[in-house]
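Table S2 (text version). Query chain:
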Amino acid sequence: MDLSREKNSDMLSEGSRTVKKLLAAIVLFGVFAFVEAGAGQAAVTTHTTIPSSFGFFDVCSNEPVFVSGNVDILITSTVTDNTISGTVHTLFKATGIGLVSGQPYQEEVAFVREFHSSPQNGQFEVTQFGEINVVTPGGGNNLWSPILMHLTFDANGNLTSSTFNPFPEPTCH
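Corresponding structure-token output:
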């Protein structure tokens, strides 16, 4: 068995768990923002910064990378008699190092999520778009990956439509 592949797989698995935990935290912040806004109030804005570090396998440079940085989260929500709506902006900026080459890395992940809900009919809609950029010295080894998701749910919580393009094949440039 190839131990380097096993280590990369473990690192990717750990990175996936970290990203899932981060996304769960962002959703919770959104829920708290809803709770803070009373009916008819102006927009409520919440800002927080969360430190984050994890490893991942960069397919463009063909090596495992460890990055560390901060996630800035800005949530704006408005509650009226007819709607709950808002945006969640997240920006992760990190520096890292290639675990094989020792090369420095810069990573930036930006997302914007927009949400709309109706207390009258219970329908909920969320759109998320963003991009991942990983840069390291040299040519042809910088990673770029766009992300798009749109979901609509009915009053029973059933998914009624979806567009999901979570992690397309990365572009190396």
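Notes on Table S2: Residues 3-172 form one domain. Residues 55 and 66 are 4 Å apart (CA to CA).
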